[in-house]
Amino acid sequence: MSDRSSAPTQRSGEIGARVESFVREIVIPYEHDPRRDTHGPSDALVRELRTKAREAGVLTPHILADGNHLDQRETAYVLRQSGLSPLGPIAVNTAAPDEGNMYLLGKVGSDEQKRRFLEPIVRGEARSAFFMTEPAEDGGAGSDPSMMQTTAVLDGNHWVVNGRKAFITGAAGAQVGIVMARSNDGACMFLVDLPDPAITIERVLDTIDSSMPGGHAVISIDNLRVPSDQMLGHSGEGFKYAQVRLAPARLSHCMRWLGACIRANEIATDYACRRQAFGKPLVDHEGVGFMLAENLIDLKQSELMIDWCAAVLDTGAPGGSESSMTKVAVSEALMRVADRCVQTMGGTGVTGDTIVEQVFREIRAFRIYDGPTEVHKWSLAKKIKRDWKGQP
Question: What is the reported pTM?
Answer without folding.
Answer: 0.95
